[in-house]
TrEMBL record:
It is a multi-pass membrane protein. The chain crosses the membrane at residues 12-35, 41-61, 73-96, 137-157, 183-204, 242-263, 275-295, 301-322, 329-350, 394-417, 459-484. This is Trk system potassium uptake protein. K(+) binds at T115, T116, G223, T318, T319, N435, V436. InterPro entries: Cat_transpt, TrkH. One of its GO terms (molecular function) is metal ion binding. One of its GO terms (cellular component) is plasma membrane. It is found in: Cell inner membrane; Cell membrane. Keywords: Cell inner membrane, Cell membrane, Ion transport, Membrane, Metal-binding, Potassium, Potassium transport, Transmembrane, Transmembrane helix, Transport.
Amino acid sequence: MTQFTLIRPVLKVCSLILLVFGLMMTVPLLMAIIYHTGNTAAFSNAIALTVGLAAGGWLLSRSHRINLLTPRQMFLITTTSWVLISLTGALPFLLIPGFCDISDAVFESVSGLTTTGSTVLTGLDTMAHDILVWRSILQWVGGLGVIGMAVAILPFLKVGGMRLFQTESSDWSDKAMPRSRTMVTMIIYVYIILTFLCTLAFMFTGMDSFHAVNHAMTTISTGGYSTSDSSFAQFADLGSHWVAITFMILGALPFAIYVHFLVKRNWRVFNDQQIRGFLLTILIISIIVTLHLMSDAGIDLLHAFTYATFNLVSVITTTGFASGDYSQWGNLAVAAFFFAMFIGGCSGSTSGGIKIFRFQLLFMMMQESIVRAVHPRAMIRRYYNGRAVDDSIVLSAVTFVFIMLLSLVIITLLLAFTGLDLTTSLTGAATALMNVGPGLGDTIGPAGNFSTLPDSSKWILSVGMLLGRLEFMTVILVLTPTYWKS
């Protein structure tokens, strides 16, 4: 395969993605016109540049018909499309006169599209509606892209043990393509329906329509962007917190499960090993933090359980909302939230992190090692949700965790080299790679943001967010010389 043959279908697919993405900018453009915010020119120019770039790519590849994509092309499409929409997503921020520089614009766009939720913007409470809506759209679109990538692409590419979840949606043969399209289409419908239900639920708790729509988009996408500098602390009603808890969890469950439920009409599809482990983890840590708040801060049971569960679910699902500065809740809570950053939600969801199933596979390996130490000749069969787990899947999961830890060390050192303290460097690297949002400490903790960091730190974190969202290996393989050899 020549490099030209490799790139042409990639260019065509990326052009289509850019075209759709550019058209999404018409929503904040309309808001800029309606509310007379003065940002009409910025969004108009951003649309023109994005659609123009898409049209150019389409013209260069128009003679090529997309049939069967190879794994090499799918790796390149995944990485290239995320980089392109991250850069074009920064255009509205960059083109508004005096709003922010290129480092901040790219950081905000990458953070939105990767559903990380870290922000460099301040004054959100008085910010123009069109900018706030664009931030929410970035996360909503990013969340949908994450699901599509996790369900239809990563299992096929056998990244990080994801082959364990290979289904008809990740079969890209000519025979299976209609089923793949049906699966992806149904997931989009589910995503839209959950967003609509979340909006209604927020409005029922007293939110106005603008805040409800924005927070619904950033909740179901487990993104965490808010319309206020105080994040979810702006809402005093505990009901809104429980609505957010519910839909953050729903966004962190496998979306393929929802489709299977709609097809089979059987609640037993939710009796999934990964879902059980995810919910049990939330319950255990929530109880521990609740008891800690009750004993140390003297908070009553209802408020302690609500605050503990809300902030824990926000971190473990990698959403990034905060109802208070939990970095001030004491050492036990800080330790719990730090380790929760790495857990993540379920595969095939909008959440980031290592993912529950990889921890379950590692625990399975640990059990197997103990049994083999006692019974060296024991015949052990591994099963996950009734499916046999071979050595290649386990090795892939272990490789993923190793690369993640290595990336954590490298990015922590790079951030420290830019002048950041150890807490900010370590938790900044963790929150970027795991796509969580806030870190810990006074600077980038729940009560702070990333605006005061040096530009070099913002670029490092932007790369980290993309690396974590694309599951590491997807980016690494494209950057290796072997990938580009014929």
